[in-house]
């Protein structure tokens, strides 16, 4: 483990690990709310999203380990658990994904500013992933808003949508393996 003062990129990446774990917990809270509302497909989508965010955090941890940078696993920020209608947690998720995109952009810029081409390359995968995440959440919010008070239309949409994605062979390795 390196003992020198971490670069701005390393500091931001450590913070991003916290953001990813927090996102994972937020998605669990959202999934549980949907589960409690008897909306199993929405719950399933957000349970899976929670695992994906956890995997992102562990990819970052693996990268830090591989670069011989110190790794500290942080606690997570508070999450919201109560909602009134499906558009609320999905809006929260969309805002969260947009925020993560900004964080990933800042990480990429920090790597570029520091001349760290390895970290710049590492962050490209996350930037590509964020385009997909924001687009997906934006579409889900649009469907949810169109459904209005008929929440089961959202469930029907998700039942028709192909939710299984092939594994991305270009994804960084996750510490301990992806779930």
UniProtKB/TrEMBL annotation:
| Entry's Gene Ontology molecular function annotations | ferric iron binding; ferrous iron binding; ferroxidase activity
Q: Does the keyword Mitochondrion apply?
A: no
Listed GO cellular component terms? cytosol
Instruction: Output the SUPFAM superfamilies linked to this UniProt entry.
Output: Ferritin-like
Q: Where is the Ferritin-like diiron domain?
A: 3-148
Pfam family for this entry, one: Ferritin
- InterPro entries given for it? Ferritin, Ferritin-like, Ferritin-like_diiron, Ferritin-like_SF, Ferritin_DPS_dom, Ferritin_prok
Query: Which PANTHER family does the annotation name?
Result: BACTERIAL NON-HEME FERRITIN, FERRITIN
From the Swiss-Prot or TrEMBL record, give the protein name. Ferritin
The protein's organism comes out as Knoellia subterranea KCTC 19937
